[in-house]
Known about the structure:
Mean pLDDT of chain A: 93
Low-confidence stretches of chain A: none
CATH superfamily of the largest domain in chain A: Isopropylmalate Dehydrogenase
Shape of chain A: globular
Strand content of chain A: 15-25%
Number of strands of chain A: 11
Number of domains of chain A: 2
Number of helices of chain A: 11
CATH architecture of the largest domain in chain A: 3-Layer(aba) Sandwich
Largest interface: A-B, 64 and 64 residues
Radius of gyration of chain A: 20 Å
Oligomer: homodimer
Structural class of chain A: alpha/beta
Helix content of chain A: 40-55%
Amino acid sequence: MRIALDAMGGDLGSELLIDGALSAIDKRPDLEVVLLGPEDLLKEQVAHRSGTGTGRLSIVHAPQTVSMHESPVDAVRKKKDSTIMVGFDLVKTGQADAMVSAGNSGATMAAAVRKLGRLKGIARPGIASLFPTLKDPVMLMDIGANVDCRSQHLFQFAIMASSCSALLLHKDRPTIGLLSIGEETGKGNILVKKTHALLQQSALNFIGNVEGRDVYRGEVDVIVCDGFVGNISLKISEGLAEAAMQMLKVEIMKSLRAKIGYFFIRKAFSSFKKRLDYAEYGGAPLLGINGVGIICHGSSSSVAICNAIAEAANMVENRVNDSIVKTLQQYTEQV
Amino acid sequence: MRIALDAMGGDLGSELLIDGALSAIDKRPDLEVVLLGPEDLLKEQVAHRSGTGTGRLSIVHAPQTVSMHESPVDAVRKKKDSTIMVGFDLVKTGQADAMVSAGNSGATMAAAVRKLGRLKGIARPGIASLFPTLKDPVMLMDIGANVDCRSQHLFQFAIMASSCSALLLHKDRPTIGLLSIGEETGKGNILVKKTHALLQQSALNFIGNVEGRDVYRGEVDVIVCDGFVGNISLKISEGLAEAAMQMLKVEIMKSLRAKIGYFFIRKAFSSFKKRLDYAEYGGAPLLGINGVGIICHGSSSSVAICNAIAEAANMVENRVNDSIVKTLQQYTEQV
């Protein structure tokens, strides 16, 4: 099992990414990680590390990097030797089994589609993401790859996310909800109403519309929406979680009594913070591409990178793409 | 100043609504509140109250109530004597200056449009709502009245919310952001791109796209989006705030040390909770109707009801609708 890792992606530097790779290697004896980036730089960063794990770390030279705000189209067109293009090329040629990047997600998606192509029958690949809930995490798709969608696209998101959730979260037949503004059939915009009809008449485990309030309750395994709504749902949640932490801090700092309380409570506090921190949740699988790719949050911790690598290996091993194609074939008349 | 209050709306019962009305009356010497609901019931509930404020409380009989999940179209068509229909009728005939309801928001909106009509030039009335942020609250519109919108509708939301924010939040020239999935011009779905162009070429104080993350930062006064996205943004925020409280509780209950800490910190905690609780924030103004109406959260506290009544009076007094119509006239060629 060989996973390619964009060692230049993310906001926190490549040392942390290499830490993540080594943790993943430690946990799985058959795992190798290929680091992508400028060879000299990476050699230097790996050189001062010890431990048996480093033997399963290799470097592939990729001199160019794509910055967080670069246009995906430009990045793919003009930077043929970027870490993400080289990484997906390794996957294409069989030199790696999957690719993980915490870099520019639009560019990573574009590079994946360019190098690997789409799965047979898939109109629009997309990005799925896990949201923390009161119970198990819920998988929401799409979180930003496709901003203007048709119902057929959302229908395919349901198939892809449900295959992936079955595998990653060990769900037998994941329940699927359609994100809308009311639970009743008939509530929602035109796109939702059309998608509802498609899902309703399918054999998928569709439970109907779910509302924004339901996302964090954890009562459904998969939630489907277009990439515009999904991205805003994700970002608004991240923003609120961040703001809530700051508001709580401000309230605590207002009194000595609360400050004393904080001294006792801070461990519980930090577990809570971790639980809400999106950067802690492995990565977001690119679904619908002919291969395995995972996008991580730009501010991922080494733990998150380690989880994402394990997740990628898991997706390869359990052939999530085969499951998607197989399910899709049952509905070819519908898409 | 006479405000009509739907005394049967909301999840928490009419006693609490009457408490809210009396608090509002206490705060403003020229204020009268008209309670709407079954006369006998309300008479009984008012009878056992004392204080000078009750003299400015009157009752108008409205025998029918609309439940939270009733179809707005049906409610307006079949229940002519419902609290909301009777309430907006009072506004129409000048017997009340504004209407406040914590009931079914779709039905309240529909009743307002049916009874009062739209403001001159407004294509789609909508609902604005205040979101708590790290700084001043931000006004987001639309939060659910219009699920499928055109750019002209969003442009008008910008005008309406900005007039309302100027008044309610005492902003001189409120900054306006367009909710999208990237700050750069050109990011977003088709609707956002078209709306961006309209706002850009207007004289409104448009600062460009804002992302989901920016909502809670409080760096912008008004955020514009369609009602589908706005409703999901609101509901997902409410859901996350609720879930976060529960997650924190679970973490605290895990250790004795944290439980002790909680004892000291709980006051700060409860202020924090209030700050995040949407039900605490007065009400959501219906904008674009030819009159003043406010929708409150179903689980509004009496404080929230009191705030909403004051907000309604404020909107009447400061002629927010005149300001909307005036601004709109400057752009009639655009809409």
